[in-house]
């Protein structure tokens, strides 16, 4: 009998119970907690595990290698895993989502990446839906892991060396992110054609991408940088444009607040004073009310003073 464990979006701390490896788990989701410690041996007996999400925690040590061959989703994002990426991870033939971003992984990518045959097929196995919260490009959004979107996400590590050519033979992969690592240049590319798509942003500088003809990039209106036209100031420095927009919004909010305060004060003041000035009955009633309060205060104070003197 298979079991599911979903403790995501909590504040659990400490380590994973070692006894979990004796449970028949096929789904484990610990996303966004404060769990720590090594997990290399905690999944050795979970032969039915299909979905493993340990992202956004403080796990350390090396990536587990004694893991289920039925894994379809592996999310270890934003932890403190170190060492090299184990080749065993690329022997998971039905894996369609691999996310190792924001760790301390080093070394080069194994050439056996071509073993990820599920990344290169249209067949979809049974799976449990997983939703994770990602912050990218200045925006926070919910990302739903789907078997129809093959993903290899490895940014923000210390990976180095050449990128295996086999990685680009997985033609069904829709998301491939190797940014913020220490890879060498992509000097193995002989042909590149990205024309007539919807790519946007700036073409990375200092790579082989500048050596291709402009025709490789045409048909992408929002794409810029060499060998295309230079990016505008807004595109090259998007962060510098944000403060001015925020300041304009703040100023408009302040102006609106001051305007509403002034209108409210004027309406209240003239609504009361104008009524007393124009309507005689209201004016007489108002002054009688004020005189009445003054008389009551005078009588009360006089009685209190007389009683105090007698005592």
Automatic annotation (TrEMBL):
<keyword id="KW-1133">Transmembrane helix</keyword>
<dbReference type="GO" id="GO:0004714">
    <property type="term" value="F:transmembrane receptor protein tyrosine kinase activity"/>
</dbReference>
<dbReference type="GO" id="GO:0016020">
    <property type="term" value="C:membrane"/>
</dbReference>
<keyword id="KW-0829">Tyrosine-protein kinase</keyword>
<dbReference type="InterPro" id="IPR001611">
    <property type="entry name" value="Leu-rich_rpt"/>
</dbReference>
<dbReference type="Pfam" id="PF00560">
    <property type="entry name" value="LRR_1"/>
</dbReference>
<keyword id="KW-0325">Glycoprotein</keyword>
<keyword id="KW-0732">Signal</keyword>
<keyword id="KW-0812">Transmembrane</keyword>
<keyword id="KW-0808">Transferase</keyword>
<keyword id="KW-0418">Kinase</keyword>
<keyword id="KW-0472">Membrane</keyword>
<keyword id="KW-0675">Receptor</keyword>
<feature type="transmembrane region" description="Helical">
    <location>
        <begin position="257"/>
        <end position="279"/>
    </location>
</feature>
<dbReference type="InterPro" id="IPR046956">
    <property type="entry name" value="RLP23-like"/>
</dbReference>
<dbReference type="InterPro" id="IPR032675">
    <property type="entry name" value="LRR_dom_sf"/>
</dbReference>
<protein>
    <submittedName>
        <fullName>Putative receptor protein-tyrosine kinase</fullName>
        <ecNumber>2.7.10.1</ecNumber>
    </submittedName>
</protein>
């Amino acid at each position: 009998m298979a079991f599911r464990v979903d403790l995501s979006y909590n504040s659990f701390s400490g380590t994973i119970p070692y006894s979990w490896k004796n449970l028949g788990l096929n789904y484990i989701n610990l996303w966004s907690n404060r769990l720590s410690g090594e997990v290399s041996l905690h999944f050795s007996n979970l032969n039915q595990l299909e979905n493993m999400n340990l992202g956004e925690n403080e796990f350390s040590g090396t990536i587990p290698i004694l893991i289920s061959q039925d894994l379809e989703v592996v999310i270890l994002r934003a932890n403190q895993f170190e060492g090299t990426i184990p080749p065993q991870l690329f022997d998971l033939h039905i894996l369609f989502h691999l996310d190792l971003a924001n760790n301390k992984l080093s070394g080069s990518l194994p050439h056996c990446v071509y073993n990820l045959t599920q990344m290169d097929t249209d067949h979809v196995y049974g799976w449990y839906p997983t939703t994770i919260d990602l912050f990218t490009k200045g925006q926070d959004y919910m990302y739903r892991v789907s078997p129809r979107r093959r993903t290899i996400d490895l940014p923000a590590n210390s990976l180095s060396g050449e990128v295996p050519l086999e990685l680009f033979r997985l033609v069904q992969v829709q998301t491939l992110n190797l940014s913020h690592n220490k890879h060498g240049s992509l000097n193995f590319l002989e042909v590149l054609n990205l024309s007539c798509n919807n790519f946007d942003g700036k073409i990375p500088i200092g790579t082989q991408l500048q050596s291709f003809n402009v025709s490789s990039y045409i048909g992408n209106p929002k794409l810029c940088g060499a060998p295309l036209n230079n990016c505008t100031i807004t595109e090259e420095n998007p962060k510098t444009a944000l403060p001015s927009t925020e300041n304009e919004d703040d100023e408009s909010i302040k102006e609106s607040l001051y305007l509403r305060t002034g209108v409210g004060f004027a309406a209240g003041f003239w609504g009361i004073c104008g009524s007393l000035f124009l309507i005689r009955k209201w004016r007489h009633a108002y002054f009688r009310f004020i005189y009445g309060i003054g008389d009551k205060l005078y009588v009360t104070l006089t009685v209190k003073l007389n009683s105090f003197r007698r005592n």
